[in-house]
Amino acid sequence: MTGAGGTTGIAGTITRVHREEWARVVAGLARRLGDLDVAEEMAAEAFATAVERWPDEGVPANPGAWLTTTAYRQAVDRLRREVRRDEKHREALMLTDTPEPLGAIDDDRLRLVFTCCHPALATEARIALTLRLVGGLTVAEIARGFLVEESAMARRITRAKAKIRAARIPYGVPLREDLPARVTGVLAVLYLIFNEGYLTSAPDHAPLRDDLTDEAVRLTRLVHALLPADGEVAGLLALMLLTQARRAARVSAGGELVALGEQDRGAWDRGLVAEGHALVRARLATGEAPGRYQLLAAINAVHTDAPDVRDTAWPQIVALYDQLARLDPSPVVRLNRAIAVAEVDGPQVALAAVDGLPLEGYHTFHATRAELLRRLGRSAPAREAYDRAIALATNAAEIAYLTRRRDQLTGG
Fold it and tell me: Which parts of the sequence belong to the RNA polymerase sigma-70 region domain (predicted)?
């Protein structure tokens, strides 16, 4: 055990350990107990026990192992107290601490992702369940992302776990021949976990959550190892690496988001940039038509290839967005394309493309309009657009950035 270091210090340590270890603890328990509900409940109880005991006993040398062991013992004790147990729980009682062979990839959390992303579950249920169990997001945070009530999201997650149990969906990575049919949903969820870490939606969290982005990258690397020839897996990994490479430059010392064009490119992680570029080039060399993630990675490769923002090949980025829009003509893709169009054809053309997009509830839509109006010298409507973006945004660093940009218009 390490020293307690004061109640406040212990509380901070437990918060950090929760971020870092939640998914690992739940995944390990799910494998051994065979029940997601019990795994999540016992993990929560283990963290509650840590809150009670660590201030007096100190933080264990290996907090994750302590939590897993505590949770498992509590689960066994509870199951022993139950008068009636189904066969699955009887088997759980006979498990030992010796890990069983895990198959092609020995990673409990990847198994948990594939379980949560089973095609028998509705798409939104897969996403919500994975964000909860693997991403460690609270039900309230997930509900905010889906724009639904917290109680409704809690019911959705409960139903998804019940369906996994009732349908006896196996806990594990599917057979290699079944992977291609399952991987699309897995990639979508991993990208969502990465995005939540890249720009946290929860107002009470730090602007960036490296624990989520790092875990999303780690799991995507494992999927890439399973399916090295899959272009979209490689594309998503490249996209994550090229985005993660910029994290040291994304928030100022004062806690404000730093726009891509204003970032210190010397602070970018050149190792990650080089790895991401290599993946993009390898996919281009195959001659296969790129998918959505590959195109997004290529766009980021163009951005990160420019030594200065003035050197950015904007026409190439617009051309890549044109390809992406043919695959995914969503309003968000059209909005992002318009941002690049502003650099090629000017803000007036871009504003005409943005106005009318059905994104009134999306803060980036209003932030983009504000910047375009600003460039056109239309301060009053720009200020209104900034106000709308600030009202909808939840990330503290982004709100600080938008507020400063707005106040520069007013002289504030």
Answer: 23-84
State the virtual CA torsion across 24, 26, 27, 33 in degrees, nearest 10.
Answer: 140
Query: Measured between alpha carbons, how far is 368 from 221 in angstroms, rounded to an integer?
Result: 33
Burial class (CB in 10 A: 0-12, 13-18, 19+), 410: exposed
The whole-angstrom separation of Cα 130 and Cα 121 is 12
Q: Which contacts of 60-64 are long-range, i.e. CB under 8 A and separated by 24 or more positions?
A: 60/1, 60/2, 61/1, 61/2, 63/13, 63/17, 63/21, 64/17, 64/20, 64/21, 64/24, 64/25
- Domain positions in the chain are 7-93, 106-227, 228-312
Of 200, 126, 135, the residue nearest 164 (C-alpha):
126
Distance CA 246, CA 250 (A): 6
Phi, psi torsion values for 312, nearest 5 degrees: -65, 135
For the chain, the residue count is 412
Q: How far apart are CA 62 and CA 2, in angstroms?
A: 10
Q: Are 242 and 298 in contact (CB under 8 A)?
A: no
**Rounded distance, CA 368 to CA 362, Å?**
10
Summarised one tens digit per residue, pLDDT across range 322-363 is: 999 999 999 999 999 999 999 999 999 999 999 989 999 999
pLDDT band at 101 (very low <50, low <70, confident <90, very high): very low
CA distances from 139 to 32, 148, 153, 156, 212 (A): 24, 11, 7, 10, 16
> Nearest 5 degrees, angle CA 181-CA 237-CA 120?
25
0.85 exceeded by pTM? no
